[in-house]
Amino acid sequence: MTGARTYYLISKPVKPTKPMDFPYEGTTARLGVGCNKGDEWVYIYFSSAPNLLDTETKDGYDEINTRIKFDDNIEYVFFTQDWGSHYLVFELPDNIIPKLIHSRTALLELHWYGEGRVYFKFNLNGFHRALK
Q: Residue 109, Cβ neighbours under 10 Å: how many?
């Protein structure tokens, strides 16, 4: 009704680098970027809501501090996850988007309840063309 538009770029689903056990077997992740006039956000969507450890509980959501590896560069990133949500949302999308554009891969590490360290590897080839 307002003519406002929102655009999304979403990766193909990826499996963890090692299979997870029940109840998380078959879980996949998708990396996404959304934007509209004046706002951008970056997120990871999971087919099963992540049950993560090493989080800080807030009012209705958790904060997650973890590592991500862009090509050969490891760094710490912050996410928020509304309780029960399938989404992890990057806290600082302006810092992440250039790395998505200039990297070939991103390897996300999560401390998943009952699974230990779980890794999802995203292929970023062509990401910069798709983002345009």
A: 15
